[in-house]
Amino acid sequence: MDVRTVNDPSTTYTEADWNPDTWEGCQANPMTAYCGSKKFAEKTAWDFLEANKDVLKFKLATVNPVYVFGPQKFDEDVTEHLNTSCEVVNGLLHSSADVPVNNQIRGQYIDVRDVSKAHLLAFQKENTIGKRLGLSVESFVCQDVVDILNEDFPTLKGKLPTGDRKAADAIAFSSFDTSESKKILGFKFRTLRETVDDMTTQILKKEGRL
């Protein structure tokens, strides 16, 4: 991801794109450092493979997910605060009706169970060798999550923000075309509704509200 173009609706990233930041440039602030860390970790792996290809006996594929949502592996792993990606949904679930919906939190998403399956297939399938696999279903803004919570969980209605659907629809930003990865992996990713519903059900059950 290039932080300079991430909010540009004319920009479409693909699996072929790399963050253009240099090591020095990534020292600018925590966000560029975070994004850069992912680039340099992956690039080091590819460079190591290239430099030692005559002696190495393993092959490489990398899996690059976007925001990873979804239920925790075990119910006991549900806590008041979750990891950064899942906290997007968890925070909205625990907000109140008078809180504005922050659509500045936006991007692309993928379900954690689909990320797990992609890692497994990367080991099992020959056509993944040497590939950078981008994992994304589609774009989202927080309004999309709020709409699902209000529509699919009647007991929460009136307790959660409703936001502004019209304003949310006017928000435009970059996209991530992962059609090549989807073709290689060969399975259908879960929708945002499936992911949010499963995640919310688990949380509400753990909290004794369902």
TrEMBL record:
<protein>
    <recommendedName>
        <fullName>NAD-dependent epimerase/dehydratase domain-containing protein</fullName>
    </recommendedName>
</protein>
<dbReference type="InterPro" id="IPR050425">
    <property type="entry name" value="NAD(P)_dehydrat-like"/>
</dbReference>
<dbReference type="GO" id="GO:0016616">
    <property type="term" value="F:oxidoreductase activity, acting on the CH-OH group of donors, NAD or NADP as acceptor"/>
</dbReference>
<keyword id="KW-0560">Oxidoreductase</keyword>
<dbReference type="InterPro" id="IPR036291">
    <property type="entry name" value="NAD(P)-bd_dom_sf"/>
</dbReference>
<comment type="similarity">
    <text>Belongs to the NAD(P)-dependent epimerase/dehydratase family. Dihydroflavonol-4-reductase subfamily.</text>
</comment>
